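Listing 4. Sequential folding, example run.
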Amino acid sequence: MSDSARIHTPDVPLGRLIRMPGGKNAGQAVEDAEKGLESMQAESMRELNRVLKKAEDLYSRAEGKFSPLIVNAFYDLINGAIGLPTAGKDRAIDSMLVSLADLLDYYRTSGEWGDKSVQVHLSTFQLLLRTEGARDAEGTAAILSGLQKVSRKAARG
């Protein structure tokens, strides 16, 4: 056997390292994780406000008509923001983003444009961002259910 085909075996196997004492206890690890999530939530909200502003600009540029460039840019913006609110513990905004992305995907593949349905989603986006922390679960569920109906109706034509 040649010297270039050696297999290295570490001095301390991984299993033994995992079982070695030291490090944080579970309570400390959970506290640190919660602090990290709090900082992510603030960053998430700033980013979502930036996404909303760009979305409103794209909506304005569409001027109520289908434009492949604008719809594709709009879709990419919204699709890229999916998951961001969940990191900040806001699943309602994430659900709204998924609904809007589905709607925009339909418009970009069909070549149609539903100005009012997009506006309803953007208004809901504003509402959910501005009332963060003050909204009730039942009201939010009703809002999201309504958005899904708007998306389905638009997709049926």
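-- end of first protein; second protein begins --
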Amino acid sequence: MSRLFILKNGNYTSVSSFIHQVEVAFHHFDLERCDEKTLYVTVKLKYGTHKVLCDFIYIIDQQEIYGAISINKHYEKTRVFIQQQFQQFLLYSDEMVLAKNFMNTVPFKQCLQQFAKKYPAHISSKIHYTPAMAE
């Protein structure tokens, strides 16, 4: 599914205002869902007492790792969550920022380490191990 947004308002900003208000918390990682080019991590998006599950998909076989929200069974609920809580549309650029921010967390680095053990060819040059990550 491709996404195209035509923005007619000149007041568009590259990062939506809700991005910094949403907490992204690790929920689940299943290495069996991944393949050598894609990493999936299930997270909870939280705002106040409201939360929704979504999957981040990370593309691994490029020069840099980048991610977004996977279009799957959770996507529509995630889109509705953003509209209900923030009265804004979920843009692809927002998804990429959320996924990128999550990459800086310990849970993401632990998932990436597990992924690297199973698929070392695409990941070895992109992962930076720290002593805290060693098993």
